[in-house]
Records
---
Amino acid sequence: GPRELDRHSKWPMVLRIHGSCLPELVLPLLFIGVWTTAVCLFSRHVRDLGISSTLLTVLGFVVALSLSFRSSTAYERYMEGRKSWTTLMTASQNLARNIWINAEEREDHAKDDLIAKVTALNLIVAFARSLKHRLRFEPYTHYDDLRDLVQHLDTFAKEATELEPERDDPGPVSHWESWGGYLGVSFTISNPRKIIKRAKYPLGNLPLEILNHLTVYIHGIIDAGCLKANPYQTQALNSVLIMNDVQTTTDRILNTPLPLAYAIAISQLTWVYILILPFQLYSTLGLIAIPGTLFAAYIILGFAFIGQEIENPFGHDVNDLPLDNFCNQLAADIDIIATSAPQDTDTFVKSKQNQIMHPLSHEGSEVWKERSLEEIRGALKQKALASMKNVKPRVRSRHNTDKDDGRYERVRASGREVV
């Protein structure tokens, strides 16, 4: 699965295997090694097959340009997926905070309103987790992290889950499929979309249906007068729109890969270049062309494989986005928002532990309340001057630094420095 961010490896990057493209390149490099060895031995003992290196220069430029295009396109998709999930985290937290703080609980229906608010917060978490499963071609509702959050909703995915007992059970994985997938053999890699193709009942769009339920809740609290201020209402509906926009953006990334003609052409050009490489290197390197070709093939195929792997950043590969961690973090953040009831401002503003002039003074707000406005504003100015002393100067030219130092000395000489 995707890399666990809380785990730390002490191995240097150059020696790490987990997450690298080396396992998937074992078979291609083995084939290239055999091919290069055969070409070099034939040229040494039978007939010299060496050719001019002019073709090496021309094709090398084209291959480099193609791989650069492939890598930049794939990384752009990866970054767009990461930014989309960041946007989802922000919109979800804003919506949860807006509902929890700004949606009032009516005195005669306080318990019902509280239960409804908690339900809405759970739907926000359910949206993120259902979107994660949708992007991984897991369209049902029986998954451990999702089932309890959506089993009370009337959705197409729930109905399909109940009507299809076998659902998406892939069955036992053979050793051939396991090792073939680890080594990147395309013939053993299963089509992730086959679960959707085999579905006997409509699967619907679970994240979109969850947004429908969230919108119904928002309209309900607006009609009931719980969410009174127009800015709060607008913010809540805008958050839902942003969540919907994130879904459409991630769907676009998933369903619009690099055009097939580009992918095929880049793959063919890369392999042609590698296969004719020993013919061009043998004339100048001799048998050293064997390790030289292998090293060049590792670099070229490595960049091609990386571009192919991160093109879809939502899967289960090591270098994919850690969507499980993102969803768990969002669930924890929303639970933190709901840990306490909305507080009155006075509970923390008038607290004795509220040191409003920290670090200039450790006195509480009640002490400063007894002082005049002029004393408070004067203390704020002294606090600013004290804070500026702790700011490290930016790197500037010597001329500008000398002028700034002179101005600072004049400030100190004027007696405005806090002692």
---
Amino acid sequence: MVPIHAAIVWQDRRTAERWRALKDDRLEPMVSEKTGLLLDPYFSATKIAWILDNVEGARASAEGGRLAFGTVDTFLLWRLTGGGAI
């Protein structure tokens, strides 16, 4: 497995539009209930959605089971264990 895109860090706000759409659709209570998190572009879900929508081949790879998402710490564990930590 190789990275499909550069890391999108917590400060990155390119997903703010998707966050705003979820908020405008009044989905904040559902997101909070299911995840325990506030709806905020800081978190990974909107960043993953952005990659699926904007990186060529990402959605097809995900649908084919050839794409994994994770945070920097999970990527480092995956690399250090040769993929044994997945």
---
Amino acid sequence: MEYTKIKNINEYVSESVSPMNTPEQIFEMYSVPIYSTGHPEYLHGNEIASNKVKVRKNDVLLCKINPRINRVWIVADESAYPCIASSEWIVIRNSEYNPEFLAWYFRSPKFKQLMTSEVTGIGGSLTRAQPKAVAEYPVPVIERQEQDVITEILNKIYNIIDARRREINILDDLIKARFVEMFGSYPENEKGWETGTIRDLVTDVRYGSSRKAAEGNQGKYRYLRMNNITYSGELDLTDVKTIDIPDQELDKCAVRKGDLLFNRTNSKELVGKTCVYDRDEQMVLAGFVIRVRLNDRALPEFVSAFLNTDFSKAMLLAKCKTAVGQANINAQEFQNIGIYVPPIEFQKEFVSFKKQVNKSKVAAQIFIEEAEKI
């Protein structure tokens, strides 16, 4: 396949605009914070403090901030209002290319690797892709008709993948609904279960290691961090670093199958992410996660499900303390969390139900992973 450089196809010429100069004008604005909604926001000029750049329909936007997230957006021109974008986007414009084809290419693992290879800044959200470097990256040279065919195929695959993702979300909701149906809400405890605190259910509570990940990802052990716990309470090992650690420290921060993992420090809305470590592999836990081992009064899957309910999420949001952009629930505060404690046989019944539902989730996830390889 023939390639050229992005700078050779990019027809975009940046044009700055100061919305404050037209305070009553409504703008269709493409900002990074609103990206996850899939739609631009509509703001009056006097609501937009800084300068923006003009964009138009079918411009492709690549986000400079933390390119590992791989935010790619096509300007939709949803309204009659002027379209503007944050300067945190790199704008690609070409009248000969199908914008959806370009967007699919920019979302590819190959291009994502390029975007993350030459960043500036230190760590995570502070890293930025450099427009001059991105301009030198390759882009395929393909006839428009072939682009359209490829785009149609990829869109169909995406729609199928999206349907499988919705299926997984429905199954997650089913598990949550079954939990509340069996055990009720808390602190109302309408079913009258015995109550206490998490402290009553634990045998060991420890923070993970504060050591840094190994350079070049060449450490002896895989390093389980807060981003490996999903908001819905699953273990996600698609992006795992490694670590070297002295043998004498290993028992203090290694995880084993059945450990409950609680994310104690994160942004306010993400503090309290909880999952059960369900792998046989020995991994090392990072310091922003608490390792919890339970006594025989509670199953880890039950406690995890309790902490992932909507009523527990609301409680955790209210409980966490915020400082310098990070929120925290320490080990003592975690152990003071109130909880109902149904008989173990009821907990086992719920865990059995969850395992059956998870089989369908796993099948859907495998399909998604295979489809995404195409």
---
Amino acid sequence: MRTPRSPRMRWRRATAAAGLTALLSTAATSATQAPATAGTDCVPTWTMLDAPASEGVVDVDVISRDNVRFSEQLEEGARSLRWNGRSLVENGPQIPVPPRTASRFQVGAGSFGVTGGWSLVSLHGAFQPDGAGVLARLDGGRWTLTTAGASQSPETGPSWLADVATVDSSQAWAVGRVEGPAGGALIQRWDGTEWTTVDHPAARRASANLSSVKAVPGGGVWAAGFQKNEQTGSYQPMVLRHDGTAWADVALPDPGAEGMLYALDASGPDDVWVAGISGSQSSPRPLLLHWDGRSWTTMPAPEPGPYGGDIFKLYAPAPGQLWALTNDTSTGVFHVRHWDGAAWQEVKPQGEQPEAFGFIFYDVDGSGPDDVWVTGTSNRTVPSDIGYPQLLPRRLIAHLSCGSE
């Protein structure tokens, strides 16, 4: 099993590899269609939004059909965008970038409500004296940089936040890990005034890591990741749940010799999904588990490439429906997959494109089965005079809907 890393895709810059859509300079509709929405005549189709050059859209958070937030990585700094139901616009004031950090500034996972929310940011190694990270807070139309709380063991190493979940203006949760072999999984809570580290079962488990967190209305807060088996040295999937009072371990099906969880989503307390990998380092298999309110079931996962693959992002719009972003281990090819309750289908939001275009998918979210967004980067390979091809990145924003853009 590969050595654990920061949760996959959250911090990866768009120029890191080839793999996503050829976004056009004007909006275009893909030939790929989704199944008709049950009970309606709707047959949603994919539309590619306008795409100026950028490093890629690393996060999408859907509040409603006409209120969608995007975090876009720029060559220097970042930009927050919003879909208002008609067009894509800059989301008012932008995240402040500290002096002398613009070329190293990265934006990651975000979580928003109607009045505001949070984005993770990285200053590439710039930590507070206690090793804490930094988050950007949107409140009242204004962004501010906020220091995360000190970890449970700052002497071990800096803390890394991987995901954040906004409950309301006075409560949010962030998860990650404490760096170093003795570091454990990290959970922090925003109480309306400051971030503080909270105790939980995996806080002092060596090499434990939390990759994803989700606040589920009526179902508490869930977090997924992995931990090291001290007897075998292998990594095992891990899920924690906060019931409103305390965090506790959640028993999972046996994944086999090894496994890790990278993604988590839920449409409700009786429809929770977690995903990642299981199997050997040389040929990992996608792992997908489902909670129906009573028990866990190991579900059929999308077929990987010839040398394995993983699931790194999920969106659960309704019971019996699931969207997954996957990555083939050997080729680095990214896929968008849809589960209709019976089988997996590969979906190409970008439609068919020339081989010179590659696509990297970062995030997927929506407000329901017929309103889904996928973000990432499209890379076009062009000849150059420097001895190897040059990648020209453009942001990728794809929208599945029944209406015209």
